[in-house]
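== Item description ==
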Amino acid sequence: MAKTDIALLRAVLSASRSLSRPKPRPFRHASSTSRAPARSADDPGFVSIVDAPPQLVSTKRKHSKLGIAILGLIPVTAFGLGTWQVQRLDWKTKLIAKFEDRLVRPPLPLPPRIDPDAIHEFDFRRVYATGKLRHDQEMLIGPRTHDGQDGFLVVTPLERDGASTILVNRGWISKEKKFQRDRDPSSLPEGEVTISGLLREPWKKNMFTPDNKPEQGKFYFPDVQEMARVSGAQPVWIEETMTPDLLVSYDREAKGIPIGRAPEVNLRNNHTQYIFTWYVRFLPSLSNVHESLGIRYPLPPPL
């Protein structure tokens, strides 16, 4: 009886184990369902790769004609500006050489009457004139900086005996010495004085400079014509010069005596930097145009 029960128990256990085991699935190739069955060369519908070669399709985004035209303007503009700066460099170099040649010549006495149209031929020429400074008609142009300090340029009419009155840019003073009462008496020379300086051509105002307000005594730009009308002088501008000396400049600043400019040509000449900038921008912009058009250059043969 016990043997029969044991045999029955074993049969039940083996049946339960067979039911709990997962049934093995038949193996299928991954491409067996996605790929079409290969055709034989004897099949009438078979097409050889030789008869129908594969076509390459570009996935790149196509550029419009307008975009390529705008992109093409960048290297053209850069090259044109670089070439223009080469011409500007030649012009500025010759201009500075001409002014330096005038600067080394002996100073000329200023004639009694000056033709304003002839000043262009004497720009940066050293001159001297004798007369009386009209401190009551003094005009301040500013703000102007000197060694990092704010201040003003002092412009005073020079009244010449038997000749025309001219405008003299005496130099820079600090903003603390704006009013004449705050300056040393030596800063306001009386009587006949002789001014030595550079004859300068009037400047042209740019669009960013505010307009002068002569009725309020405010001048932001050396408008020679306007300042001459206000003071009743000829539109002739003399910049008083002095030999650069640090101790003398400190003493003048403390007393409120205008610090004159150095007798030198101070025109900026940065055209070499501009040439380098524009020509450097020209090369990569041209490469971008070639890449957009799909232009490729063959590599050089190996050595």
In short: Helices lie at 2-20, 65-103, 224-231, 246-255, 271-293. The chain has a mean pLDDT of 83.
